[in-house]
Amino acid sequence: MITIVDYGSGNIEAFVNIYKRLNIPCEVATKPEQILKAKKLILPGVGSFDETMRILRDSGMLNALNKQVLENKTPVIGICVGMQILSKKSDEGELDGLGWIDAEVKKFNINKLKEKPHLPHMGWNTFQSEKDNPILANLVPEKGFYFLHTYYFSCNNPKDVLTSTVYGERYTSAINHNNIFGVQFHPEKSHSNGVQLLKNFANL
């Protein structure tokens, strides 16, 4: 069972529709008790870092998420800003992140970007695998994923980098630390690669 955390940020219905097409059971969690029963968690996010953290804290589900992910080691994947809040902090805001990953979120250096408009990084881009992991099974790097972001995830531990992507410079586009995953791109908008990644996550 895939549990999609609905705390008021992210395109929940898109993930539900994909899992329905895959015939993979999923549910939408709006209460802490649902989080505590989850076998796998999807943490979406859209908008700014601080706004997303405020919404998550106000949802009343933060303590349950910390318990399930950090203590019970339930697999979780953060999507877009849902990945960025896994870090300790962000250049975009002032609030602390979840701190599940030893990392900070930084703004792209516009002086290194050639394409205009420079920011946000929007559209399709390829990726390079930095370590083996079942969540990357049967993905096609050349097909890539759909991105939409101005800030990027910077890991302090290189071993947490799962994939990298080039936009002006090489940056981390997906992470993994034990049971915690995160992707900067939008799998729900990334056609076959995105569907395959979500299927892989369900099969972990």
Roughly how many Å apart are the termini? Answer: 12 Å
What oligomerization state is this entry in? single chain
The overall pLDDT, averaged over residues, is 95
What's the story with the biggest beta sheet?
Answer: 8 strands, mixed
The gyration radius over C-alpha positions equals 16 Å
Relevant CATH superfamily? Class I glutamine amidotransferase (GATase) domain
How many DSSP-defined strands?
13
Low-confidence parts, pLDDT < 50 over ≥5 residues? Answer: none
Order of helices and strands: EHEHEHHEHEEEEEEEEEH
Q: What is the overall number of helices?
A: 6
Can you put this structure into words, describing what you see?
By secondary structure, the chain is of the alpha/beta class. The chain is 25% helix and 29% strand. The protein has a single domain (2-203), classed as Rossmann fold (3-Layer(aba) Sandwich). The chain is built from six helices and 13 strands. The strands form three sheets. The protein has an eight-stranded mixed sheet. Strands 5-6-10 form a three-stranded mixed sheet, with no helix packed on it. Strands 7-9 form a two-stranded antiparallel ribbon. The mean pLDDT is 95.
Helices and strands in order:
Elements: E1 2-5, H1 12-21, E2 26-29, H2 32-36, E3 40-43, H3 49-58, H4 62-71, E4 76-79, H5 81-84, E5 89-90, E6 103-107, E7 121-125, E8 128-129, E9 145-149, E10 151-155, E11 161-167, E12 169-177, E13 180-183, H6 191-203
Parallel strand pairs: 1-2, 1-3, 3-4, 4-13, 5-6
Antiparallel strand pairs: 6-10, 7-9, 8-11, 11-12, 12-13
